[in-house]
């Protein structure tokens, strides 16, 4: 790809001194089409606008995802599904990492953190974002973008302008909601994902929990008991022997499998014998 060649070229000249200048040269070389694409980018800092490394990353991302961005009413899960399909079509291997980076350019970190803190009180964006699965990210993103969406009609409007007002639901015969939003079809505060959704449409379905490695729930709904200082590995993990990192470890102290040397019983025995002699 053109950008890659340019990067090699810059590396060959061996200059890191002026990333700004190289950014300008890149934009000039790309001509009006490149500059039009450049106009659609958003930057964390005005200084990034002409930074060659940031531009190359942005143009790469633009190429991979064809400049797609989530639309205000677009469903987050469907949007991420589409990004995954785009990655698949282009046979890209580090797809998940690219999708995470792309999501990072689109979410509001402040709103995301506030929402995440309701589920995970200790959540800190810089250290915990990358520990979330894509589905968990989507769930939190959806939670704060959906707060404006009307629970009766799926639209965004001022309170009195609901298009479901005066409509009778064909499912429960009650008034003022569409049948697709009928409360009889809805699960509130789901035990597996923590959200509200149509019965049998849990976003945590088939998801593997990063805490206990069991299926069908998000980590903030994990019921597994945590071992704080495992007597085999010394670390904290869910109470499941198969999650213990020392399970197949051969102890260098006693040559028995299943624990780390610092948790070896024989060491104390050896020490005691030494003290006696
Ligand atoms: Zn409405
Ligand atoms: Zn109803
Ligand atoms: Zn659920
Ligand atoms: Zn779990
Ligand atoms: Zn362990
Ligand atoms: Zn041992």
From TrEMBL:
Residue intervals of the CCHC-type domain: 168-184, 189-204, 208-224, 250-266
What is the superkingdom listed in this entry's lineage?
Answer: Eukaryota
Q: Which GO terms describe its molecular function?
A: nucleic acid binding; zinc ion binding
Q: What is this protein called?
A: CCHC-type domain-containing protein
What is the protein's species of origin?
Frieseomelitta varia
Q: What is the lineage of its organism?
A: Eukaryota, Metazoa, Ecdysozoa, Arthropoda, Hexapoda
């Amino acid at each position: 790809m053109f950008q890659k060649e340019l990067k090699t070229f810059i590396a060959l000249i061996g200059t890191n001194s002026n990333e700004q200048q190289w950014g300008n040269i890149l934009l000039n070389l790309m001509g009006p089409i490149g500059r039009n694409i450049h106009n659609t980018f958003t930057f964390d800092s005005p200084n990034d606008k002409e930074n060659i490394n940031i531009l190359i990353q942005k143009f790469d991302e633009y190429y991979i995802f064809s400049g797609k961005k989530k639309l205000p009413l677009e469903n987050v899960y469907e949007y991420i599904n589409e990004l995954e399909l785009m990655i698949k079509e282009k046979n890209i291997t580090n797809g998940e990492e690219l999708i995470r980076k792309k999501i990072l350019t689109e979410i509001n970190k402040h709103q995301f953190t506030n929402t995440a803190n309701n589920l995970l009180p200790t959540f800190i964006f810089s250290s915990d974002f990358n520990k979330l699965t894509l589905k968990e990210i989507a769930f939190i993103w959806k939670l704060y973008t959906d707060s404006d969406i009307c629970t009766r009609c799926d639209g965004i409007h001022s309170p009195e302008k609901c298009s479901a007002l005066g409509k009778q639901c064909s499912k429960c015969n009650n008034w003022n909601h569409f049948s697709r939003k009928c409360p009889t079809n809805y699960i509130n505060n789901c035990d597996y994902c923590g959200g509200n959704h149509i019965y049998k449409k849990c976003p945590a379905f088939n998801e593997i929990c990063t805490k206990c490695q069991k299926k069908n729930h998000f980590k903030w709904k994990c019921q597994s008991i945590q071992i704080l200082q495992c007597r085999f590995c010394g670390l904290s993990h869910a109470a499941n022997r198969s999650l213990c990192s020392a399970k197949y470890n051969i102890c260098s102290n006693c040559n028995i499998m299943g624990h780390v040397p610092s948790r070896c019983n024989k060491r104390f025995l050896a020490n005691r014998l030494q003290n006696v002699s």
